Amino acid sequence: MLAGMRADTAPTTQDHGAWEVAVPTGGRAIPGVRMAGFRDRSGGTFEERIPPGPAIAIVIDCGPGGLGPLGGAAVEGGIVAGICPAAARMAGRAIDCLELQVDPPAAPDLLGVPPAELNGAPLDLAELWGRDAGRLRARLIEARSWDDRFALVREALARRRPSPFRVDPEVADAWWRIRAGHGRVPIGDLPGRYGWSRTRFWNRFKSQLGVTPKRAAMIVRFDRALRRLGTAASVAEVAAEIGYADQSHLHREVLGFTGRTPGAIASDPLWTVDSTAWTLAHTA
Q1: Which residues have a Cβ under 8 Å from the Cβ of 67 and sit 6 or more positions away?
Q2: Where is the HTH araC/xylS-type domain (predicted)?
Q3: 112-116 — which CB contacts under 8 Å span 24+ positions?
Q4: Which of 74, 155, 157, 251 has the fewest CB atoms inside 10 Å of its own CB, making it the most exposed?
C-alpha cells in the first residue's frame, strides 16, 4: 500500500473470463466521478469506436503503452473523450487500464475546461493537466493493486485547481433531470421550470455542455441501451425497455453511434465486461 492513502475497504473485483474488473467501494469518493479498472489477462487485442455517453470518459493506460487512438500519436497521460466525441477509434492489446467517468457539470473543477470544449477529437489528458498527467500515469503503472491506483487518482483529482467557468445551475439541473429520466423527460417542459424561453434554454444548454437538450436525451437513452445490450437481454427486450419505437429504431441509433449492429454489440464479450464494471460502480 502507498503510505497515507489506504482506502476504507478493498475494491470490488469480478472475473469475466480473461477479464478482471474492479471498482472502489467504501472509499473517499470524488463527487461527480466514477472509476473502474479493467485488465485483460489473455493478452488479446481490441479495436472499438469511441461512443458518445452521458459522462466525459478518461482512460489511462496502466500498462506499457498498449492503448491509444488508432493511428494517433502515443498518449502521455490518458485519452479524454467528451459526451459526444468526433468519430474516432481506440485500439490496444493486453489491456490494463483505469477509466474515469466524469459528470459534465463537474468538468470545469476537475479537468479545468468547460465540457463543451471536449466534444471534438479525443484529447490527451496531458493537454489539460500538463506534466501532472504524465506523472499520474507513471505512478499508476508502478502501482500493482487496484486499491493503490484508485487512491492515486483520488489524490490527483483532489489537487486540481478549479476553473472559473461554471455550468449554470439551471443547465446542470436540466442535465440531471434528463439523466434521472433515462432520456425520456419531456424536453419541451424544461425551460418553463427555470422561467426561461425555449431559445435561451436551448442556447445556454448547448453552449455549456456542447449538445442540445434533445441530443443529450438521445445520448443518455443510447448509453442505457448499450449497457443493456451487454447483458443477457435480447435486442427486442432492450428496444422495448429503453423506449425505442421498435428494433429498427434501436438498430439505426446503435449503428450510427458505434458503427456496429445491436446484435454485434450484444455478442461482444468486451461490452459485457464494460456493462458489468459500470453496474458495479453504480451500486458500490
Answers
A1: 59, 61, 75, 79, 90, 91, 92, 95, 97
A2: 187-268
A3: 112/160, 112/161, 112/162, 112/163, 113/163, 113/165, 114/163, 114/165, 114/167, 114/208, 115/56, 115/82, 115/83, 115/167, 115/208, 115/209, 115/210, 116/82, 116/206, 116/207, 116/208, 116/209, 116/210
A4: 74
- At 232 the pLDDT is 67
- Domain boundaries, given as residue ranges, for the chain: 12-158, 169-283
At the second CATH level, the architecture of 169-283 is: Orthogonal Bundle (1.10)
On the question of pLDDT at 7 being above 70, the answer is no
| 195-204 confidence digits (pLDDT tens) | 999 999 999 9
Banded model confidence at residue 78, pLDDT cuts 50, 70, 90 = very high
The fold adopted by the segment(s) 12-158 is Jelly Rolls (2.60.120)
